[in-house]
Amino acid sequence: MKYFSLISLIISLLFCPISAEEVSSGKIILNEYEQEETRELVKLVYEAADLVEEFGEKAFPEFRVENSKWYFDDIYVFVWGMDGMRYVYPRDISGEGHNMADLQDINGKPIGKMIIETASRGQGWVFYEWTVPGQEEPQWKSTFIKRATTPSGKEYLVGIGLYNMPVEKKFIEDMVFAAADLIKQVGLTEAQKRFRTKEDKYIFQNIYIFLNDIDGNELFNPVTSKSDNEFTQEQYEKVTNYYQNEIRSQLLKKRQVWMSYEWPDPKNNRLSRKDTFLHAIYVDEDQIVVGAGYYPE
Fold first, then answer.
1. Could you report the per-residue pLDDT of 79-97, keeping only the tens digit for each?
2. Are residues 176 and 262 in the same domain?
C-alpha cells in the first residue's frame, strides 16, 4: 500500500499538472492577473495544495527536493499548520518544527498572523519586507497562500513568495476593498490609525490608502512626499479637472473606477504615470472615496 501511494504521487507530479480547462473553469482565476510570473506562482501554489489534499503529509518530502519544480532559485513551497507550526521549509529544514505565528518583518508587521488569517479565508496575498539571502537590504516580498485539507481532515496552509514582484491591479483593488470594509467595521477614526502604520497591511512599497470626499477633496493621506510638495498648481488642476469631468460621474454610477494620470514619482522625483483605484462608500450620510495607486513600470 505504501509503495502504491508513492507511485501514485510520482505519477501525479509528472503527469497531472493543473490543466488549462481547470483554470478556465474557475478552479483558479488566473485572468485576474496581468503578469505571467504572478499567474505561474499562483498556479504552482494551487498544484502544491492539490498534492497535499490528495496525499497529505506524504507530499511533504517532494517539496524539499532541490532543483525541482517546487524548489529552485529563490522559489520554494512552504507548509504550515493552521496554528502556525512550520512543517516544510526547504530553505533551511532545521527551521521546521517551529511555530511561526509570531513572525514579524522589519517594520513589525505581524506576517505570521497575517499568513494564518489569509489561509483561514481560503487563499490570498501577504506583502512584507524580508532580507534576500546573501544581501543586507530587505526587499518587498509577495507571498500567495492557500489552505489545503488532507484526506484525514487536517488543514494546512501552502505558500510561495517572490521578491520584488510587479504590482498587480488586483493587489490594489483587494487593499482598497479591505480598507473600505475596515472603515465600516471600526469607524473612520480607528481605520485611519491603521492606514498610517507600516505594521499593518495598508502600506506596502510606495502604495498606501488615501481618502477623499466625492468631489475629490483630500480627507486623509498618510504620506506627503517632497515630490508632492513640488507638484505645480497647473499639474494639480489638470488632475482635478480630469476627476471632476470624467471620474466623479463614473464613481457616482459604478461606485468604483480606475483612473490614470501624471503624478510625481517619489523614486525619481519626476512626473510619471500613476494608476489609481477609487471606491466610493457611505460613512453615515457622507460619501467617502477610498483609494490607492501605483506607478506601473
1. 999 999 999 999 999 999 9
2. yes
